[in-house]
Write a structure and sequence with these properties.
This is Cytochrome c domain-containing protein. Pfam families: Cytochrome_CBB3. GO terms for molecular function: electron transfer activity; heme binding; metal ion binding. Keywords: Electron transport, Heme, Iron, Membrane, Metal-binding, Transmembrane, Transmembrane helix, Transport. InterPro entries: Cyt_c-like_dom, Cyt_c-like_dom_sf, Cytochrome_c550/c551-like. With about 140 residues, the protein is mostly helical. It folds into two domains: about 45 residues, no CATH class; about 70 residues, Orthogonal Bundle (Cytochrome Bc1 Complex, Chain D, domain 2), CATH 1.10.760.10. It is built from seven helices and two strands. It has a two-stranded antiparallel sheet with strand order 1-2. A hairpin with a 2-residue loop joins strand 1 and strand 2. It is elongated, with a radius of gyration of 33 Å.
Length: about 140
């Protein structure tokens, strides 16, 4: 009898947690224990990640130090005007530019612009400028 009473109480509780909307039963039951665990874990992970993450401005950049590879990455801004292989397009060819202008004049053009050439390297570091120069030397 007591077991039957418990069953009736449980059925009554389940009925209290059900709404009928457009002929469909919608329950308001408990969140499954597995999802409670998952949400708790994600919350703890998010807080730990936020506290331990390095700010973007303190991360190493591609152009840390002078390297041909970093210069190759920076040369992506040149492609629109100087062509996909830097052999010329709207702007002149960059192949042999370091030999023609010299490193100092090239840096001056990159930092200050010239004619229709914008000052793309105005905010570049010395390492970034050096990387671009080293990359262009490989194209000669």
């Amino acid at each position: 009898m007591e077991n039957n009473q418990r069953h009736n109480d449980k059925a009554k509780q389940e009925q209290e947690h059900v709404d009928v909307v457009n002929g469909m039963k919608q329950g308001h039951g408990r969140i499954p224990k597995f999802l409670v665990f998952v949400y708790t874990f994600l919350g703890i992970w998010a807080v730990a990640y936020a506290l331990g993450a390095t700010p973007l401005d303190e991360r190493e950049t591609l152009a840390a130090g002078v390297s041909v590879e970093a210069g190759k990455g920076l040369a992506g801004s040149c492609l629109a005007c100087h062509g996909a292989d830097l052999s010329g397009g709207l702007g002149p060819s960059l192949i042999g530019t370091i030999g023609q202008l010299g490193e100092e004049e090239f840096e001056n053009v990159m930092r200050n612009g010239r004619n229709t050439m914008p000052a793309l390297g105005a905010d570049w570091s010395e390492d970034q400028m050096g990387s671009m120069i080293e990359y262009l030397k490989t194209l000669e």
